[in-house]
């Protein structure tokens, strides 16, 4: 694999199987999804591996330098990577479909009297087609587009077929590829859809993008007042996955909380805030209307956000709201699904353009260090349910093997800790003095993620942060302690407390105003929570323990001297 990657540094293109095509619009900033093929110098073949592979830096769609033309390769409409059929170990590989006969769907039974008519097609003979078929007018029933093998695997199996292939791609440079286009002083109006995950607001909030766009708005506003060329970007904050939050939360309260947190994150100039659920179609139509109003007839709309924030799912939902248009973006519960910049057709109308961009990697999110299987445990997919503890000083709560909260000092007898995280992640509550052996004995087993004892050391150094908090009432949470990519713990108390939070070094842990104030009706008890992971780990542990005991008995029976030897 390394030898192949070293060959990619020269900018070479395959000469024996070059695909020439052109795009139907020369005004677009990046190639369109559906190129019109002009010429194949030779048929695509997945078996041939002799031709030189395209440069890796050019495989991300829309990410070529401005002074260089894009590679002569088609774009995958699912993830935005340039597709190639010559090197199966590289990103963008796809297998061209074999040509099929128009009659391959026809049944074998023929209409009586029609079998001897040579000029009739097999479909017409079998009664499938009428002599004068009418064209279909049903919107949204376009033929399925050709996608790369990675998108096919994600759509049908929910996993990446070859994870090592996409690791060869250079990191997506948002500052160079997208930021200058969003803040250009000339050209079409820019509208920025800043997409944030409601269940991981602070971890998925694109702080760098928010600060960049806010500074651009301020700079262009001053230039506009001075009569200079200026293009003031419009920013819409879209909070997705609100169906994961309890239905008891009021929309007005949620929007007020979102605006407050957005100002803390650097988004000072917002044109609007939309709370949506792409899965349940909540608020999507209002968002589309607002985007169309701001973009006008020629604007550029950029969907930006962290990995797995829900950008592609949102755009697909927006497409369904517009006259049955269906976009073909690949969505999967895997961070980093989109690899290149994808222009989405038919959503905004006229000459306005909508672009889906690759997710921005936030290294301070715990999910950035987890494997695919571990991410599936952490990522939230159903409405969150509170898990509440009432504990005293000197006790600790573990969230899987990823976070621990110690109640070190209390001015009152007890406090309430309500955990908001994926229900697949097991919890544990016990005395702090007994938690010193938890990492060695239970991390990777009963407390997952990580999965496996060997993964614990790979996640990094276990470090502590201290928080001093205070509260004025029992019936509502006083503060949230949020871990990026994992969830948060709501703390309720009437007094003061010193809390120690343990997680892996470099993972972001913050305090914030409480998002939710509700508690569980039935409190959790000491020990492990009921979980499939805990049950399976206990079963494995008991089997090993039983085998060791049986082995010990067998060895003891062998080493025991017989009665004749003793008398001798």
TrEMBL record:
Please note every region of biased composition (Basic residues): 546-559
Q: Which InterPro entries match?
A: GTP-bd, Mito_lipid_metab_GTPase, NOA1/YqeH-like_C, P-loop_NTPase
One of the entry's Gene Ontology molecular-function terms is: GTP binding
Per the record, GO CC terms? Answer: mitochondrion
Show the SUPFAM superfamilies listed in the entry.
Answer: P-loop containing nucleoside triphosphate hydrolases
Q: Per the database record, which ranges form the NOA1/YqeH-like C-terminal domain?
A: 417-513
Q: Can you say what this protein is called? A: GTP-binding protein BRASSINAZOLE INSENSITIVE PALE GREEN 2, chloroplastic
